[in-house]
UniProtKB/TrEMBL annotation:
It comes from the Bacteria. This is Aminotransferase. One of its GO terms (biological process) is amino acid metabolic process. Its EC number is 2.6.1.-. Keywords: Aminotransferase, Pyridoxal phosphate, Transferase. SUPFAM superfamilies: PLP-dependent transferases. Gene3D superfamilies: Aspartate Aminotransferase, domain 1, Type I PLP-dependent aspartate aminotransferase-like (Major domain). Belongs to the class-I pyridoxal-phosphate-dependent aminotransferase family. It holds the Pfam family Aminotran_1_2. The keyword rRNA-binding does not apply. Residues 37-387 form the Aminotransferase class I/classII large domain.
């Protein structure tokens, strides 16, 4: 195995070098090595991709759809995205100029931030949240401003947002990351709560990048996109990973104002050239003939959610009822004297249940742990038996 030559050991990206890997992935991989452990860590749906969606990918291969697509993705897929967003969320996007198909929502986040950030620019990141936002901002030369939203029930209020913008400098804040339905909390913003954000941002020189990858997984009400209230300043991120259990197909998309999309598409083209053809044809099928596919998944997720929340609260782990996504975010009782990492490690080693420590989701996550109920009900029920026994031993 080749070793790095001593003459190039310091020739690395000084921003990237000190960063660790995703803590979510680190804990998932670490716990997966423990024999007999039930893993409730990753947001990986335990459902299979719908058959008609798989067939569309297979057929594209048979038909020799093997050449480069348009860099923004096949126009037919962008038209499907546009039609889907109109039908499901009453949003209007020009498929030719205002939509980019990306390699998952992750690339969409990177491209969107790259289109905005200049060195020293600040991006407001309400926490706890999907922690990938933080290192991406840093790699791009920006400054992530983590805001703990725990005192406000995991929501960024308009008042708090205004205070943070003034404190950090309105001329330096270029964007805010908004993630809802929320990972890890399952929190969903109401129309009034979104309007508070709009009222603050509307006269500021900034965008809101709204990661709405869990939009199809809301319980008891339909998702309202921020783009419906503020289309000219919202960069919408979405994809097929959660709605259609297509995590491995890696299809996401950006929808936004034409001038913004033009800039984001430059980074997209530099980084990946174009998305994979079979995955695009599968996504097109999902968004045209499979809009109802998430309904049954959502029903089963809700059953798991209700069971989990009842169990967790009964054991003394204060847990709010998630309104979306497929996670619970529970408070670790202070009497146990354990940090979120200590709790997760102890539970894995002694209780054989894998959860993600809250600190993996930013500064606002400490003192909590996340459970993914994208696992089977059988695994969840057994995990709760183990958690109860473990809790009694503390």
């Amino acid at each position: 195995m080749p070793e790095l030559d001593s003459s190039v050991k310091n020739v690395v990206n000084e921003t990237l070098a000190p960063m660790g890997r995703s803590q979510i992935r680190e804990f998932a991989e670490k716990f997966a090595k423990i024999p007999g452990l039930i893993k409730l860590t990753l947001g990986e749906p335990n459902f299979n991709v719908p058959e008609h969606v798989k067939e569309a990918a297979i057929e594209s291969i048979k038909e020799n759809e093997s050449h480069y697509s348009d860099q923004k993705g096949f126009l037919s897929l962008r038209e499907a995205v546009s039609g889907y967003l109109k039908k499901q969320f009453d949003l209007q996007y020009d498929p030719e100029a205002e939509i980019i198909i990306t390699i998952g929502a992750t690339e969409a986040i990177f491209d969107s931030l790259a289109a905005i950030i200049n060195p020293g620019d600040k991006v407001i990141i309400p926490t706890p949240t999907f922690a990938l936002y933080i290192p991406i901002v840093k790699v791009l030369g920006g400054i992530p401003v983590q805001v703990d939203t725990t005192p406000d029930g995991f929501r960024m209020t308009g008042k708090h947002l205004e205070e943070v913008i003034q404190q950090e400098g309105p001329d330096k804040v270029k964007a805010m990351m908004l993630n809802f339905p929320g990972n890890p909390t399952g929190f969903v913003y109401s129309k009034d709560e979104l309007q508070e954000i709009v009222d603050v941002v509307k006269d500021k020189n900034m965008f809101v990048i709204s990661d709405e990858i869990y939009a199809e997984l809301t319980y008891g009400h339909k998702h309202l996109s921020l783009a419906k209230l503020m289309p000219g300043k919202t960069v919408l991120i979405n994809g097929l990973s959660k709605s259609h259990a297509m995590t491995g197909y890696r299809i996401g998309y950006i929808a936004g104002p034409k001038d913004f999309v033009e800039q984001a598409n430059k980074m997209h083209a530099f980084a990946v050239t174009a998305p994979s053809n079979p995955a695009q044809f599968a996504a097109q099928e999902a968004l045209t003939n499979g809009i109802d596919d998430p309904i049954e998944m959502r029903k089963l997720y809700q059953e798991r959610r209700d069971y989990l929340v009842d169990q967790l609260n009964d054991m003394g782990y204060k847990t709010a009822l998630p309104e979306g996504a497929f996670y619970t975010f529970s408070e670790i009782p202070a009497k146990y004297g354990l940090s979120s990492v200590e709790f997760a490690n102890k539970l894995a080693e002694e209780g054989l249940v894998g959860v993600t420590p809250g600190v993996a989701f930013g500064k606002g996550g400490e003192g909590h742990f996340r459970i993914s109920y994208a696992a089977s009900m059988e695994d969840i029920q057994e995990a709760m038996k183990r958690l109860r026994k473990f809790t009694e031993s503390l």
